[in-house]
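Bug #77: duplicate submission created two jobs. Keeping one. Sequence:
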Amino acid sequence: MKKTVVFIFLSIAVLLVSLRMDYFSDRLQGESLAVLAQFLSIVGDGITLTGVCVFLLVFGIVFKKGHIRNSGAYGISVIIAASFFVHLFKITFERPRPDFGNTDILFFLKNPFIFDFSGKFNSFPSGHTTVSFALAYALSRSYPRLSPLFYAIAAMVGFSRIYLGSHYPSDVAGAALLGLGVSMFLFSETRKKHWQTWLFISLAIFISFFKLGSLLLFDVDEAVFSEATREMVGTGDYITPTYNYEPRYDKPILFYWLMSLAFKLFGITEFSARFTSAMFGTALATATFFFVKKLYGQRPAILAGLCLLLNLEFFVYSHSAVTDMTLAFFITAALYSFYLGYQMSSESGVLSSELNNKWYLLFWVFAGLAALTKGVIGILFPAAIIFIYLAASRELSKVKLLLAPRFLLIFSAIAFHWYIAQFYINGWEFFNAFIIKHHFQRYTEVISSHSGPIYFYVPVILAGFFPWAAFLPNAIYRGFKGKGIYLFGAIWFLAIFIFFSISRTKLPNYIMPLFPAMAIITGLAINDFLENGLKKIWLYISCIFLMVVSLALAIASLFALTQAKLEIAFPPVFFWGTGISFLAIALFGFAMINEKHRLVSIGGMAAATIALLIFVRTYGGPPVNLYLQKTLYQYSVYAGKNLLEDGALATYNINQPSIVFYSRRKIFKLDGESGLRELAAMKNSKSLIVITRKENIQELEEKFSLTLLNTDGKYAMLANTR
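Kept job's structure:
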């Protein structure tokens, strides 16, 4: 375990250094050693290395050299395993090779693909380097004296990929670590025990990062957070976030800091804007897996982890440049920490010990980070859930352990320092905007027209937690009848659900922090179903829900393919892929009735859900993104490139923050009569571009003699003649 932790931290350090080297990769390229580099690339090709291993295997068999035979067999095994993970991560990260690094994002949107057969957009990780280091480790086990030679050849293969311009340094560094990691695992004594764990973590990375950077930022929230972070990096002001170079008090600072770090590492791109959410999505799924594994073992952990990973809500918000996944992680980590400390004190009978105090300390650390991510709910939710749980368990006396002065001091140091600094700098303006508007008014009034009925989150959960929502009623029922984590999870779920159902302002992302609770109690319910079965009423509810909903969605997909006239042009493969995935879920739901097929049915539903998410993201996301964002993106880039430095970019009667992000300049937001007066004063003093809705064209042309540059979809771009 210690070796694994050390390897992980060293890997992170190496990757961070290599990312900085990416900016200088062109200096590592050349022509003088091109022939040698091409030869080394041939040596490191998977086919070449497989041929070497096959030769060793055959030679060992023919001449009865067991040592050589085993070396060949082990080599083939590590090459196959390494190649699997190489292609998994190539599909996931979809990084353009250096020669195509400036490819416009519209290329990906107009040409969606799962597998890149052209080889232009699969830079990370380097396949040559991965298999070379994987084989170097395997052969070094058999021939330790030759290990320097094996690793030297692998390193030269990696360098040749950079020298030829086929990969960035970070592609090669990541590949070397991946190859070593895969090979080390295959040779470890615990591989049979831990292979499911590492496979789950790989799935978590795949789901959270899959095609993360190949969609334009969506308006409004993604673009606002990304632009505010871009301005933070540009101005160097890491205390007061700004949007359009004016203070933005909507959210606390931590998420901006994390996004700033990603921008520093990867550059200002869509991938780096969403990196923080994907990272915490992976961390949340992994933490949930290990939490349940510690309490109940491997299979319940896998089931709970799959319930959390494989649903639309998790997928969307692990791919969104918004705070919700980060907040969900910190709230969840705080609650996991409390429960582990509580369980240890309950099992030992000792109220306070060094070990459970460490867990309680972690509770306050994570709660402080949650409060620094989204304000008071970062501590309100964990505190309320714990209080209700201890009251229901008749152990309220244990609250005192959490309220030790040193814990409160640590929480205050983490959570309050930025608030104090912000109030000192911006005073009551900050207090009124952040505390009054975005806490009290957002809960008691409708903000930005985001209202909804009290049952708003019921369909959100049914759709967002599909297909596992079929088991949720039974899971909640079991939760309130049970004790321990069952009761804890049910209270966690219900507390957040009721809180936001009462709130006047409603959005689907608000309930993201209850998804880990749903995943745990649902995963445990499914595990109990596999082991002991269900009462017929619960079995029929689950099966009927899966069959009816999935069949309806499958029919809707196929109907839309042949009959519906949609405003958004989805490709046929989207309807076929989603329709077949829904149909598969329906069939597996029906198969669950038979006791012999239940485990296969759950596994089949998980596989079908993975396929569904892949088709939705690959072939559904781009048409929607093009429909909503393409025109604004093109207008913004045009304005940013063609306006003079003292020119003005304005919007009229629209609120689309992506214009600020993609134009890389401050805009003048003009609305109503006051906006028209400002526009009249502006049009004769400087070069001007106005982006607005199509219905405003005639008004702007007639009143201000603006020239129509382009109109496309819902939007139009006009300019004066200066």
